[in-house]
């Protein structure tokens, strides 16, 4: 395809003032603000019905995966549009009693607990009780005396604990065995000295210790245990009434026991009690309960003007979903090509070659494995639990979510054009093909970057090449103040891109036209 590019952009030509038409002093009109905002939406009104038709395939994926990987049991749920729309179970949550799980059976979700801890920290931040850039030693004074790797190392901040960048070493095998440590044992660990693998703030390294410290901060700032704070201020408001921190509080018929596959047979794993390290991985949840949590995360998207109705603000949830620290091993690759990934606040972040953003976290402990993920732009999430040692069902979740997208033909939300984009498009069309000055439409840089004479000459050349205007296509917005549309001409098409200023009455600051054969 041959292209003729004519770019009318910000490239200062050093032209004299006499070549620059004066800008009109026309009164600006307020056209931005919440009353004019239109949120992205799903164009397909039948999307849930299409997803439903794919459930039998999803069930087979999970059950085959559980069988092939020797899972005593698996429980899973698919969440969309604010609710659990499908769930399934297979196997036994108690092998000795041959007890089948239900969607109310509680599994230890391991490191999936971290996002609850992160959310609690952010809730306290929103309430003005701490700041993410605060040194952690302001809340845990014992940290004041730790010896860093280098003499010029900065003090660890709360944000560095949240983003796995405090300089602590990766500690999965060790941290998993510390769940029932007491608060005093955590403080004794600090007082005895901490070994660092790096200086704080330089790189990502997965740290259970960091989230144990966040739990301690929640306890000290709130005046109650972090478990109670999270239960009262996050889980109960979401209706998560069955979830527990201590396994002895769970009725035996509701508890999934953990197992280890050794020498072709099952061995029951001992369950550690709740303790100081539970903030990194101690919570027990059911599919029904956790689905409410998934739905709450999904409800934060897209930004909109609806009333707030959650335990934390929607903007706070979206803040949790932003990547704050790129993983040192990024990019990775999968069947779709390379993808970037990193750590957010108690959550993993990934963008693949298709442009799909995934927010997720897995969990693994002796006796348990779990994973959940959401695709915010697609409004869908999935969660699955198993009771096999480190038996993460993330691969099955991956297969199911991609299957749902494919079979249901799911598309991300569509951003409607803002009122101001539509208005500026209409006004621009009045200037094609015979360009006129129209200073009321253009920012003060516009004719400084290229004079009226040059612009008229270039635009005339475009339409001489393309021919008479026959039809104008719809505008495709990139955001509220930038978009693109096509003009169908007699001989060729003209692509029109423009972007507006941040002023109260946004004016055109850049305009690019492209002729397409």
The CATH superfamily title of the largest domain: DD-peptidase/beta-lactamase superfamily
What composes the largest sheet? 9 strands, antiparallel
Class of the largest domain, according to the CATH hierarchy?
Answer: Alpha Beta
Query: Which parts are unreliable, with pLDDT below 50 for 5 consecutive residues or more?
Result: 1-29
Number of helices: 15
- Summarize model confidence as the mean pLDDT: 92
Distance between the termini: 6 Å
Number of strands: 19
Beta-strand portion reads: 15-25%
The structure class reads: alpha+beta
Number of domain units: 3
| Rg on CA atoms, Å | 28 Å
Give the CA-based shape: globular
CATH topology of the largest domain: Beta-lactamase
């Amino acid at each position: 395809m041959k292209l003729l590019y004519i770019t009318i952009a910000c490239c200062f030509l050093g032209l004299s003032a006499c070549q620059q038409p004066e800008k009109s002093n026309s009164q600006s009109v307020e056209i931005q603000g919440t009353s004019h905002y239109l949120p992205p939406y799903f164009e397909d009104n039948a999307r849930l019905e299409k997803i439903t038709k794919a459930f039998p395939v999803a069930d087979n994926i999970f059950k085959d995966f559980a069988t092939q990987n020797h899972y005593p049991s698996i429980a899973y749920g698919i969440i969309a549009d604010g609710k659990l729309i499908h769930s399934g179970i297979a196997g036994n949550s108690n092998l000795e009693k041959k007890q089948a799980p239900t969607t109310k059976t509680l599994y230890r979700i391991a490191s999936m607990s971290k996002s609850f801890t992160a959310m609690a920290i952010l809730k306290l931040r929103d309430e003005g009780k701490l700041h993410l850039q605060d040194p952690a030693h302001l809340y845990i004074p014992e940290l004041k005396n730790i010896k860093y790797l280098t003499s010029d190392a900065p003090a660890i901040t709360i944000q560095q604990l949240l983003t796995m960048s405090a300089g602590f070493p990766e500690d999965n095998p060790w941290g998993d065995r510390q769940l029932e440590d007491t608060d005093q044992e955590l403080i004794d660990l600090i007082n005895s000295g901490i070994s660092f693998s790096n200086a704080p703030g330089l790189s990502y390294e997965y740290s259970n210790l960091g989230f144990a410290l966040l739990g301690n901060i929640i306890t000290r700032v709130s005046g109650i245990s972090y478990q109670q704070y999270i239960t009262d201020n996050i889980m109960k408001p979401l209706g998560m009434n069955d979830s527990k921190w201590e396994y002895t509080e769970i009725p035996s018929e509701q508890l999934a026991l953990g197992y280890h596959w050794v020498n072709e047979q099952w061995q029951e794993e001992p369950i550690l009690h709740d303790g100081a390290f539970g903030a990194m991985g101690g919570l027990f949840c059911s599919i029904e309960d956790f689905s409410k949590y998934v739905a709450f995360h999904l409800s934060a998207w897209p930004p909109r003007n609806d009333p707030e109705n959650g335990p934390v603000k929607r903007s706070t949830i979206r803040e949790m979903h932003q990547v704050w620290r790129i993983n040192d091993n990024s990019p990775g690759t999968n069947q779709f090509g390379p993808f970037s990934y990193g750590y957010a606040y108690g959550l993993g972040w990934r963008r693949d070659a298709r442009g799909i953003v995934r927010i997720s976290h897995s969990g693994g402990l002796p006796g348990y494995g779990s994973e959940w993920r959401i695709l915010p732009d697609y409004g869908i999430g999935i969660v699955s639990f198993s009771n096999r040692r480190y038996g993460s069902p993330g691969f099955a979740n991956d297969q199911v979510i991609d299957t749902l997208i494919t079979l249901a033909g799911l598309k991300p939300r569509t951003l409607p054009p803002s009122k101001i984009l539509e208005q500026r498009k209409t006004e621009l069309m009045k200037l094609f093909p015979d360009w006129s000055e129209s200073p009321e439409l253009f920012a003060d840089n516009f004719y400084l970057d290229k004079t009226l004479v040059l612009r008229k000459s270039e635009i005339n050349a475009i339409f001489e090449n393309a021919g008479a205007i026959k039809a104008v296509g719809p505008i495709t917005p990139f955001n509220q103040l930038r978009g693109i549309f096509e003009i169908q001409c007699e001989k060729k098409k003209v692509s029109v891109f423009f972007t507006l200023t941040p002023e109260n009455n946004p004016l055109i600051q850049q305009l690019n036209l492209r002729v397409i054969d």
